[in-house]
């Protein structure tokens, strides 16, 4: 029995995704910059190709003002070098005029033939600090406009921030049908939960104890139910998996063995989400952990000493990690977004030890969004006007 009702109640598989380090977030030793792991197109696209080769079904492409890759440009560049893996592209609402964003997404979706999913984010822009309520209001309006662009003939929106009337959606029609690309969203504040419950498809969580995750799911479901909707749920978590638990724990300690805590704080503070409620919960988990950094069996918070956002890892043997993921699935989690340091090496460890034992799926296909043949859209096989 799942913790709350989920959209994909009958789905007996999970979308297992990896992470491409577009934003200067790849290390052999956490917090020690390594030029060979810089966020170049070559390195980040190598992670994509390795993830696809290993059988991961999606890959998160994050967004931040760091040395690295622009998210949508990177995804476009990966279209010709991939043919199976989906892309979870982070879009920061308000960066681009929303109708033009809808068109950009439609272009990418056609380039990828339906392999595009979107991670909606609402954090601040570089050099700017906006009121949280305003940011979520803006995001709510952007997502509403995107959904209109993908499901209606015209965009008609009369909001506080954006006003449009009778704008044709022909240039913005995506490859995916029945609603367009899936929207993944994470956030802990009441405004965040309202946005996800009203507009999005998958509620993403950062690692906490299972009881805390269950509480997050109940809070998100309450807002979705108020709109007559259900959600699916996803977990973003790091991985350290080895043949034995001792080997995994030793590698986790090795990973932070050269970390300077002052530099780790600097890394955390430079992220645009560093002041968010979700980040404060990750910090609280570190405070509650035992002397080795474990807040519950196999959930290690040490990785959060040098990164904002997702701040814990599953650390253990193949069987332990697989068992933990199965427990999460029983709770109702249908998407896992995984990563590990360095990302190529840890993709190999997880992808050869754990992934072959999991039944995986592509959520856009499970939702019936991806057509079996090129759709009759203006960019597909539709009539030109």
Mean pLDDT: 93
The helical percent reads 25-40%
From the spread of the alpha carbons, the general shape counts as globular
The rounded distance between the terminal residues' Cα atoms is 51 Å
> According to CATH, what is the class?
Alpha Beta
Low-confidence stretches: none
Largest sheet: 8 strands, parallel, barrel
| Order of H and E elements | EHEHEHEHEEEHEHEHHHEEEHEHH
CATH architectural arrangement: Alpha-Beta Barrel
The figure for the number of domains is 1
Helices, by number, come to 12
β content, as a range? 15-25%
The CATH homology group name: Luciferase-like domain
The strand order across the widest sheet is: 1-2-3-4-7-8-9-13
**What is the number of E strands?**
13
Cα-atom radius of gyration: 20 Å
CATH topology: TIM Barrel
The helix/strand class is alpha/beta
Region (Disordered): 366-385
Keywords: Flavoprotein, FMN, Monooxygenase, Oxidoreductase
Pfam family, one: Bac_luciferase
Domain Luciferase-like: 40-334
List keywords for this structure.
alpha/beta, TIM Barrel, two-stranded antiparallel ribbon, 12 helices, 37% helix, globular
Task: Write a brief caption for the model.
Its EC number is 1.14.14.5. The chain has about 375 residues and is of the alpha/beta class. The protein contains twelve helices and 13 strands.
Sequence-ordered SSE layout with sheet pairings:
Blueprint lengths: L14 E5 L21 H14 L3 E4 L9 H8 L7 E7 L5 H14 L4 E6 L10 H20 L2 E5 L4 E6 L14 E3 L4 H10 L2 E4 L4 H17 L5 E11 L2 H11 L5 H9 L7 H12 L5 E3 L2 E2 L12 E5 H14 L1 E7 L3 H11 L9 H4 L19
Parallel strand pairs: 1-2, 1-13, 2-3, 3-4, 4-7, 7-8, 8-9, 9-12, 9-13
Antiparallel strand pairs: 5-6, 10-11, 11-12
Helix pairs in contact: 1-11, 3-4, 4-5, 5-6
């Amino acid at each position: 029995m799942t913790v709350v009702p989920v959209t994909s109640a009958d789905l007996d598989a999970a979308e297992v995704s990896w992470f491409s380090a577009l934003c200067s977030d790849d290390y052999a030793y956490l917090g020690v910059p390594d030029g060979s792991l810089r966020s170049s197109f070559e390195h980040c696209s190598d992670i994509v190709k390795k993830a696809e080769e290993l059988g991961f079904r999606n890959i998160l492409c994050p967004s931040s003002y760091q040395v690295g890759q622009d998210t949508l440009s990177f995804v476009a560049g990966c279209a010709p070098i991939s043919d199976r893996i989906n892309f979870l592209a982070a879009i920061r609402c308000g960066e681009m005029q929303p109708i033009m964003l809808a068109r950009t997404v439609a272009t990418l979706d056609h380039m990828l033939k339906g392999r595009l999913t979107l991670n909606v984010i609402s954090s601040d822009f570089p050099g700017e600090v906006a009121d949280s309520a305003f940011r979520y209001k803006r995001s709510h309006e952007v997502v509403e406009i995107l959904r209109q662009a993908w499901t209606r003939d015209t965009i008609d929106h009369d909001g506080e921030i954006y006003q449009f009337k009778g704008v044709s959606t022909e240039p913005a029609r995506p490859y995916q049908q029945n609603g367009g690309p899936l929207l993944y969203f994470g956030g802990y504040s009441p405004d965040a939960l309202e946005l996800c419950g009203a507009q999005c498809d998958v509620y993403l969580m950062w690692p906490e104890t299972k009881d805390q995750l269950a509480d997050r799911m109940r809070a998100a479901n309450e807002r979705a139910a108020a709109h007559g909707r259900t959600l699916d749920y996803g977990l973003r978590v790091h991985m350290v998996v080895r043949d034995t638990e001792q080997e995994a724990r030793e590698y986790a300690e090795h990973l932070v063995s050269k970390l300077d805590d002052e530099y780790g704080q600097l890394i955390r503070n430079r992220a645009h989400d560093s002041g968010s409620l979700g980040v404060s919960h990750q910090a609280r988990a570190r405070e509650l952990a035992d002397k080795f950094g474990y807040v519950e069996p196999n959930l290690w918070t040490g990785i959060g000493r040098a990164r904002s956002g997702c701040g814990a890892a599953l650390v253990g043997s193949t069987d332990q990690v697989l068992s933990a993921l199965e427990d999460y699935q029983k709770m109702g989690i249908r998407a896992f977004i995984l990563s590990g340091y360095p990302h190529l090496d840890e993709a190999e460890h997880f992808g050869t030890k754990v992934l072959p034992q999991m039944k995986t799926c592509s959520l856009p296909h499970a939702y019936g969004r991806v057509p079996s043949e090129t759709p009759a859209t203006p960019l597909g096989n539709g009539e030109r006007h």
